[in-house]
Amino acid sequence: MNSPGHKFSRFATRAIRRYLVGAAQRWVFEPPPQGWIPPRLERTSLYLHVPFCRNCCPYCPYTKIPYHGTLVEPYTRAAMAELGWWANVIGPAEITSVYIGGGTPTLALDSVASVLTRLRERFRLTGDICIETNPSEVDKEVVRQLQNAGVALVSLGVQSFHPDHLARLDRHYTPLTAEQALSLLAESGFASVNADIMFALPGQTEDDVIADLARAAELGANQLTTYPLFTFPYTSVGEYLRLQAVRMPDLRLRRAHYRAISGWCAEHGFERVSVWSFKRGAVPRYSSVTRDGYIGIGPGAGSHLPDGFVLNTFDFESWFETASAGYPTIALRMPFVSEMSGWWWLYWRFYDTRIPLEAIHAALGKDAPKAHLWLRVVEQAGLAIRNGGYLELTESGAFWLHLLQNHFALNYVNTLWTRARKEPWPPAVAI
Ligand code: SF4
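Above: inputs. Below: predicted complex with iron/sulfur cluster.
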């Protein structure tokens, strides 16, 4: 993390963010001031983090703890208390989408159902419910429970159908299990079924990646989300490197695989819907990250509020005790200057790979001319083209954006998450 390349990338991204957002934006997460509460909200989205995993994959950066049945009931109580706290402070807002991630949410579906029931009592739920699943957890009973809870969009973390790659990633299921899980979800009537597929893995060829995509499509996935290892390196890379078989993918390999994936998807009717994802047919898009605002429930969950980001404590015990006692579990907060929200909005439109040009003025106000200037630079560099009222990233634009996101994750999110994982209530963290 202290290589010359990393130092340069840190310097460059800091210079860019200062130029774009301005010097008034402090990039420091601090404990919220005494008595601070979130503003009241008309509408938002909700993220529920279920932290349990049967097998804690060594490369995974997310907040998780080993599953034990006795933890589920206390988790449920704390999550419902936390939901109640948010409802009291932000009011009975409209919830325009729910995303349930983890961890492995399907390990605690009774808990998820209870939280969703409480959510419907305290808020106005108008949007879809999306959930992440794991191949070894999907069976007919799980499908029934998901549908009873009102889940419409599911994502299956397949990663690969190749036994060697699954073994290298320490994923504890066979290709057959992944195939059966995907096929069961696809035939069960969900509005959208996404399959996560990894690329640029050690020893993986382009043919391997394409074979995985083709198999997922054949089994009925209507969305494919593809990503390389370490794209979300929120934890220390040093820890990953203890895994001798796993290395940061080579840039040329990533480029070649990304191009092959884009080409295969275009040929097989999957249109690009984000830097990572391709969707086939008129189904809703499964997405975990592009909401403009959300509140987060669970250990390590973040919230994006109109006036800033906040982050819950990552420590399960601390989260559980604080939430159960009816107190906020927020450990860190970074307030926004007014233009920051607009730039954040633009970042996610880049992630969508389609920027609605007419919306820029409303989103960025006085910074709109600066944004238009940058968009012209992107266009002239051949990274995007105009199409109607949109600026659309080209295949190469999408690839370079994915690299930029990688640096963003390395520079900022890794710093924040590494500290938050070490201390339940960290002091200020500058990113
Ligand atoms: S990759 Fe998924 S199953 Fe593995 S530890 Fe992370 S959240 Fe759990």
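Confidence is low (pLDDT under 50) at residues 231-238, 240-245.
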